[in-house]
Amino acid sequence: MAPRGKSCDFCANSVNKIDYKKINILQKYITDRGKILPRRISGNCARHQRQLTKAIKQARSVALLPYKID
């Protein structure tokens, strides 16, 4: 029996646009060292993974999220 693929949380909740100001959602997709989780681990679809990456990078540039965690 093959393992089932993960479903995209954003598609399940019918989210159209990921907002960079919602830090509590974005932090779920960042590791403890500050790296963005890849799509194969997070289970996001390609469309939402691109939006998520963009939102995380935008939140970092506005200093809502850290670039690196020591």
Topology:
Blueprint: H1 9-12, H2 23-26, H3 39-42, H4 46-61
Family: Belongs to the bacterial ribosomal protein bS18 family.
GO molecular function, one term: structural constituent of ribosome
Subunit structure: Part of the 30S ribosomal subunit. Forms a tight heterodimer with protein bS6.
Question: What does this molecule look like?
Answer:
With about 70 residues, the chain is mostly helical. The chain is about 40% helix and about 0% strand. It is globular and about 45 Å long. The termini are far apart.
SSE class: mainly alpha
Element order: H for helix, E for strand: HHHH
Terminal CA distance reads 41 Å
Tell me roughly what share of residues is in helical segments: 40-55%
Mean pLDDT: 91
Strand count: 0
Uncertain stretches: none
Rg measurement, Å: 13 Å
Strand content: under 5%
Largest sheet composition: none
Apparent shape: globular
Q: How many helical elements?
A: 4
InterPro entries: Ribosomal_bS18 (IPR001648), Ribosomal_bS18_CS (IPR018275), Ribosomal_bS18_sf (IPR036870)
Function: Binds as a heterodimer with protein bS6 to the central domain of the 16S rRNA, where it helps stabilize the platform of the 30S subunit.
Keywords: Ribonucleoprotein, Ribosomal protein, RNA-binding, rRNA-binding
Protein name: Small ribosomal subunit protein bS18
